[in-house]
Design goal:
Helix content is 74%, strand content 0%. By secondary structure, the protein is mainly alpha-helical. Helix 2 (24-31) crosses helix 4 and helix 10 (209-218) packs across helix 11 (224-254). It is globular and about 60 Å long. It starts with a helix and ends with a helix.
Amino acid sequence: MIITIFILGFLFGAILQYAKLNKYNTISGMATLDNLTVAKAIAVAIGIGALLLNIEISLGLASYHVKPMLVGGIVVGGLLFGTGMAILGYCPGTMAISLGEGSLDALIGIVGGLAGGLVYTIWLPLFKSILGPNLGSISLNSLLGANQMLFFLVLFIISGIFIGASFWLHKMDGTKDFKWLISGIGLAILNPIVFLTAFSNRPIGASTSYPYAIDMLTKTTENDYFTKITGPGRWELIFLAGAFISGLVLSLMRKDFKLRLIHENWKKYKGMVVFDRIIWAFVGGFILIFGARMAGGCTSGHILSGGMQLAASSLIFAAFVFAGLLITGKLFYKMGK
């Protein structure tokens, strides 16, 4: 099973690398609206993946794993996650991939993320009440699943909207590169495979591995939260190990492995001061994982996996993530050096 999870992580890393979805320049470019690759790939992945996954579930081959609608956690966590994502320029999963390619700011982001995971574990009892109210696991299936004909009609319409939106964004982006489409389709296929009951019977995810790893290292394990995240945290840690090796192996094969701390987009907006990048990468990683844990997921576990299930919590989380991302992009990067 460990080898299987590792291979899935490797494939995940390869898919993201193909369209450079893991790169700092790509993700920070989304925050400044200079690069829409991430949004395009996510939209088409959700559109196609929702069809594949829901058909798969209707055939009894998989089951839903819808995250609960914790209003406070989704809203506040989403805004924090978007903020951290803009500053850091990575997601919880892409940090591992980019570290494999030699990005040292991703390593600093991981350290910040581990700190954020530890603080979340320790502080959770103090602010747990603000994560609610819990409206339950709401999805298209929970609302319309009793009427399969209506359910699939609405499913096809929503999927079509997401796919159409991806091509509209591509037109807005003004590029002729369609690698985002291939990566989006790859994610749309990979996630339903992971969902299969006979395979992993769970969604793709990444952020749970951070509090799991640091809680294990610091022996902060005598609490309900660690008990809750032990299973998924271990799975995701192995998954990200595969993603890291994917970044390392494929970058060596492409001959573009390079140790780097400051990327072109950071240099463009924030300058070449090494200390600044180190501090902000740590802060970004901390905020990113803290926000992910408040919301109960991240880009892969919430936006992609939940989006493909057409889960209310995940779609609302995505909206607040992009709000936080774009607001931070405007304020943080546009202020200049």
